[in-house]
Input
Amino acid sequence: MRELTYYVAVSLDGFIAGPDGQFDAFLAEGDHMGPVWARYRGTAPTRLAEAVGLEVDDGPFDTVLMGWNTYAVGLPDHHLASPYEHLRQVVFTRTHEAPSGSDAVRFTDADPVETVRALKQEEGKSIWLCGGGALAATLADEIDRLALKINPVLLGGGVPLFGPRGYAPRSWERTGTRAFDSGVVLAEYARRPEAAR
Output
């Protein structure tokens, strides 16, 4: 069965973006970039990766999931209606229409949990949840792995790693930690078997 991995940059105080979706406080340069890309190849928008000479093939994921706000980061200023052309793209939204040029993106108002369970039954590589926090909260019981790029910054507010979901402790097992001179720490976790559905 395929796994769902929530791979995302996060601040020291637990935010994945600022109040208006800002993410420019996260480090885009440093000694963490090469090793993190080698581990999670293919997790940059296709055109951006090509522009800086990064290969997007042979990564751990073949499908990317996101909520509308995460998807809309590339709209309209960057004109990235299909940001991850090299991956199967699914955007969960109940209120937005697909923009022009987004034919390769599946927009759905279907239940995210049911959608993920169906995707997990298919053949293929792992599934990447790239945001946002509300979608992560909805899918908390379906997430098999966490891969957090912890950045040495406090945002003070914004989009939390997991949106509100009520008190429900879930145990995770650390599978890897790597600290870089840049201050970024890549922390990886797997759901503990006893916490599995």
Q: What stands out?
A: The longest helix spans residues 112-121. The radius of gyration is 16 Å. The beta strands are 4-11, 15-17, 61-67, 88-92, 105-108, 126-131, 145-151, 159-160, 172-179, 185-191.
